[in-house]
Amino acid sequence: MPAHLTHQHCWSSLPSPSVREAASMYSTAVAIFLVILVAALQSSEPPESSFPYHIPLDPEGILELSWNISYVQDIIHFQLQVQGPRAGVLFGMSDRGEMENADLIVLWTDGNRSYFADAWSDQKGQIHLDAQQDYQLLQVQRTSDGLSLLFKRPFVTCDPKDYLIEDDTVHLVYGILEKPFQSLEAINTSSLNTGLQRVQLLKSEVPTPAMPADVQTIEIQAPDILIPDNETTYWCYVFVLPPDFSEHRRHIIKYEAIVTEGNEALVHHMEVFQCSAEFESIPQYDGFCGSKMEPDRLNYCRHVLAAWALGAKAFYYPEEAGVAFGGVGSSRYLRLEVHYHNPWNIRGRHDSSGIRLYYTDSLRKFNAGIMELGLVYTPVMAIPPQETAFVLTGYCTDKCTMMALPPSGIHIFASQLHTHLTGRKVVTVLARNGQEMKVVNRDNHYSPYFQDIRMLKKIVSVFPGDVLITSCTYNTEDRKLATVGGFGILEEMCVNYVHYYPQTELELCKSAVNDGYLQKYFRQVNSFNNEEVCTCPQASVPEQFTSVPWNSYNRDMLKALYRFAPISMHCNKTSGVSFQGEWNPQPLPEITSTLKEPGPNCPAQQAPSHTNPTVVSAAGAEAES
Amino acid sequence: MPAHLTHQHCWSSLPSPSVREAASMYSTAVAIFLVILVAALQSSEPPESSFPYHIPLDPEGILELSWNISYVQDIIHFQLQVQGPRAGVLFGMSDRGEMENADLIVLWTDGNRSYFADAWSDQKGQIHLDAQQDYQLLQVQRTSDGLSLLFKRPFVTCDPKDYLIEDDTVHLVYGILEKPFQSLEAINTSSLNTGLQRVQLLKSEVPTPAMPADVQTIEIQAPDILIPDNETTYWCYVFVLPPDFSEHRRHIIKYEAIVTEGNEALVHHMEVFQCSAEFESIPQYDGFCGSKMEPDRLNYCRHVLAAWALGAKAFYYPEEAGVAFGGVGSSRYLRLEVHYHNPWNIRGRHDSSGIRLYYTDSLRKFNAGIMELGLVYTPVMAIPPQETAFVLTGYCTDKCTMMALPPSGIHIFASQLHTHLTGRKVVTVLARNGQEMKVVNRDNHYSPYFQDIRMLKKIVSVFPGDVLITSCTYNTEDRKLATVGGFGILEEMCVNYVHYYPQTELELCKSAVNDGYLQKYFRQVNSFNNEEVCTCPQASVPEQFTSVPWNSYNRDMLKALYRFAPISMHCNKTSGVSFQGEWNPQPLPEITSTLKEPGPNCPAQQAPSHTNPTVVSAAGAEAES
Predict the structure, then answer these.
(1) Which range has the top average pLDDT, A61-70, B38-47, B140-149?
(2) How many CB atoms lie within 10 A of CB A36?
(3) CA atoms of A242 and A334, how far apart (whole Å)
């Protein structure tokens, strides 16, 4: 949908203020702002016509964002389309989607003129002009049914008020202005209709491998579901592959989402899981996930075949690898899980969204595999309540990679990070000879509500003897009791599902603290607090954690324990059996040099940029005279 | 000693290289550097003729630094004088006086031309040109016996390679170039004669109070000492005030150092202590401090009357306060302590340095007092070995200030920080209602070898109910056993002697961890490490600390203990008796909001400055043609 520059209208439909008011506002505007008629002046810059990425910002699809990325210039071009007559719009990014302390662009009108500015909101939500104007407006276009903005911004601006755009999750925020404001400072986000949308802006743009001539597709779609009018619905549907899929093995080489038209803003994410081959059959099911009606056997449909989240495009496997699919020992039963996000409780929408798998009979050189890194699902790894940034770390040790990986190594090309509700950051680092070498995947703005499979920008090769360290940061400010590790949604996980080739027997390379050392910790808690409480060993670990009085000493001691105590390793084959050897206790890997988290490279000297809003229409001013 | 711009000589006395070499060097110089004949061009800037501060940099006084401070422009002007013919000189600042990672100016010659540059040394000591040239050369002068440089630099340059000049201790470094270097990059500090000198560059410049007409002086000087040819000598001398000093009270209102001419580079610091009045007399002594010959009673001469360190000027008391001196109940015995620093083992120097006290019979409105903040001298506060930055904190609690301070508060005008050998940073912060309000005194480059009394730039008033928190950071990398608190030089202290008025009964407001909680810690260490070791309670605390196996868990637990455990308060009167009330255990003060350590305010936008060395003499170039 190419956007062409049209004649500039005064796009505000609100009545003009009196001439006197307008004159006063005008002189204020001139005094404060250097008037630049950018839309006219900059029309020589050709509009960006190619936006490979699209995402609706609000649940009704009133705002739609499209963007493209230039990795040569480190710049993003954004196209923001707003439906219907609006006084203005506000769009930007913030740490975790809050409207306070956000990096924003604002298009507003004083009822007379319209302005565009790079702005920021303070901790009370009040908007201020940025000292440095880094969002550059390229075009404002008024169409019959709304408004379209074209603007660009570098990934890194070196303005402390700006969001640093990195590879990880970005929390986009938006607000709709329904009336004029005398000035930018008069706007407070708390008085607006606002919302957030999570997306990975800086997607990996590895070249798309060519599809073979014999490529075939199969669509795993839910059958005409009436989307419930609840904010959150996880819908589960069992899909059975045709019998001939058991005949021979194929390779899945690509998949993509099929989203029912009109529901783009409601379908939040989808995953296809393959069921365990140990069951001859899996009962049919088409209903809420986790409902009492759901057959228990669906718990054995956990092997991820495909995962898609809002804003993601088609997922291509590297040209030398594909996911083994079909044939002997491969279940024909798949579970499709669709997450509907319907915060405005829209009713009556029917949906048949799903995922299209592309597969081929011409097997590629390597099978692709998925390996689980991080923490074992066990309550011994726990987070005290009221923590803002508690870190748990799981290891894949040199001993395990030495035993399980081929001498030529494995090549990780994609990664899906996973925690439950309190996860805020996840990172996996590769270490060799005690030194951290590189980041496999890092998300400093991780959200459990946005778990997509991400292609890595560069393939990471892991060799025997390497160590993979996965750390998750949790926020338990709203919890009253300790949060222990486990499968439950109120328990926690710390996992990185890495997609790699060639497939090995190693399916799970995770750790947890050695239980004996945890029991020493509980004895220390008892002895230090000469107890009313009892974290007695006959109790279960979750009960023991529940009885810890969480003063600063017991918190610090738990951190110290996790930093010090030997671990129990799970170095397991696909069959669930561990590789041969002693795995508990194992020494904690020793890391002598750590990677610095790279900050933006901001030189002290920088070319000054203009620090004034842009007047986007002179029509109002003309009306004055 | 005003420096006048004279005709520019080629100040290098070394032979010129061949014309061909010179031509090659010349073209290199032109290619790399923009040639600016600064000394000639900038002669219009008047030389700074007033340098209130002077310090010899090396023990022979070959290099002498003078400087002045402009708190309006936040700029220091430096005058560096170098005696004798030298190929060049290097001067600058680094974190703790090391020649690596230093911020430097370099004046060097390639045998032909001479250059001046703002530079930095890397972690191997190699010199590089700074991308941003912040030291500005104003004048180079060749006199009959050496060289004189005049240059200036802002306190804050926002160049990451530059030292941030703050109020605290600055480690100046210098090096002498004895031969030409083809380029700046050819210089490595490890091949030079180098050294360091500690100084407070940014001294407080509060206006000097007028002296009353009846001001009198008394000189406390050592009698003609032959300075020993050891690197470090602490000389102790007992001085007896004339009998009439017992007759009535005076006020000391000023003091200053008297340094024997020629020994300016050897006399490192001096202190005058008053002895306890409980002894009728103190034996005469004139010898090494701490020697076996020293009478034990000198241990009772610990009340600081005056302290001076290299680079410090006269110390003036605020005009409304003076130190009570003489009269009934005041000892006539003083101990003068002189620290000679003679690293080059110079022999045969005689010295009669000392301190001149200015006093008056016209008593001022208030007596000034000294209060000790920080940690009690007790082994319960200990630092594990091999720590690079272990922090111990002492408190002066609200309960104690509530009991001891007048409703109108006290006013701190000066501060002397004190630790033993492993101290690296000291800070005292004032907190009110659980919130840190302001820094009383902070030294992030503290050195136990440089303990002067510093005037505060702003008087800090402390009211009943306020809390004073003193934290010291220690480096025990070179220790094999724990370092416990105590009086010994290998034990540690954490003290801030604050000078204030009006004098109160409160002499000591310090804390230590409650011993019962420390014993719980030792029990935990035992239980966790199911012991070969025994940190048994029948052992002394230093013995218990000695037997702790210092793994990361026991280190972290000790930190956690000090952050959590109740304290034992010493809220003591001058008599050594504590104020009435329960002082052990006391709750640790709760601090809900802490002060951010203010970084330099470096805007993202900055005017670019030239990034080339300055050619300081054209004489060599003329020789080529």
Answers:
(1) A61-70
(2) 17
(3) 11
The residue assigned the tokens 């020493």 is: A520
Maximum Cα interatomic distance, chain B, rounded to a whole number of Å: 88
DSSP state, B44?
G
Cβ-defined contacts of B588-593 (< 8 Å, 24+):
B588/B395, B588/B563, B588/B564, B589/B395, B589/B397, B589/B398, B589/B431, B589/B434, B589/B467, B589/B469, B590/B434, B591/B431, B591/B434, B591/B435, B591/B436, B591/B467, B591/B469, B592/B434, B592/B435, B593/B434, B593/B435, B593/B436
What's the mean per-residue pLDDT of chain B? Answer: 86
Compute the distance between CA of residue B354 and CA of residue B235 in angstroms, rounded to an integer: 11
pLDDT digits (tens, 9 = 90+) for B193-248: 999 999 999 999 888 898 999 999 999 998 899 999 988 888 999 999 999 999 99
Residue type, position B599, single letter: G
Closest C-alpha to A149, from A210, A89, A212, A72: A89
**What's the CA angle centered on B162, arms B156 and B166, to 5 degrees?**
45
The pair of structure tokens assigned to A332 is: 């024909």
d(CA A385, CA A480): 5
Q: Which residues are paired to B66 by β-bridges?
A: B54, B79
Distance CA A336, CA A352 (A): 11
* A224-233 residue pLDDT tens: 999 999 888 8
Residues of B marked active site are found at: 234, 418
pTM (predicted TM-score): 0.80
pLDDT tens-digit series, residues A593-608: 999 877 676 654 444 4
At B88, is the secondary structure helix, strand, or coil? strand
Mutate: best of A156, A524, A552, partner B, most B CBs <10 A: A524
pLDDT digits (tens, 9 = 90+) for A465-514: 999 999 999 999 999 999 999 887 789 999 999 999 999 999 899 999 99
Residue A415 per-residue DSSP state: E
Helix axes B515-528, A515-528, angle to 10 degrees: 160
Distance from CA of B335 to the nearest CA of A (A): 46
Kindly determine whether residue B605 and residue A608, on different chains, have CB atoms separated by under 8 Å. yes
Task: Report phi then psi at B429, rounded to 5.
Answer: -120, 140
Q: Say what angle helices A552-564 and B552-564 make with each other, to 10 degrees.
A: 170
The complex scores an ipTM of 0.73
* For range A209-219, the mean pLDDT: 93
At CA B368, angle to CA B365 and CA B370, rounded to 5?
Answer: 165
Question: What's the rounded Cα separation, in Å, for the pair A112 and B513?
Answer: 67
Q: How far is B99 from chain A (nearest CA, A)?
A: 24
- Residue A346 C-alpha, separation from nearest chain B C-alpha, in angstroms: 44
The amino acid sitting at A195 is G
A524 contacts on B by Cβ (under 8 Å): 524, 527-528
**Cβ of residue B556 closer than 8 Å to a chain A Cβ:** yes
As given in the structure block, the two tokens for residue A220 are 């795993």
Residue A540 neighbours by CB distance under 10 Å: 10
Q: Who has greater pLDDT, B415 or A1?
A: B415
Encode pLDDT of A36-85 as tens digits: 333 333 444 444 458 999 999 998 889 999 999 999 999 999 999 999 88
Instruction: Enumerate the β-bridge partners of residue B308.
Output: B270
**Distances from the Cα of A621 to the Cαs of A13, A25, A37, B494, B591, in angstroms?**
15, 10, 12, 68, 55
Average pLDDT over residues A13-37: 36
Q: Which residues, at least 6 apart from B56, have a Cβ–Cβ distance to it below 8 Å? A: B63, B64, B65, B197, B264, B265, B310
Contact in structure between A92 and A172 (CB atoms under 8 Å): yes
B158 at interface of A, judged by CB pairs closer than 8 A: yes
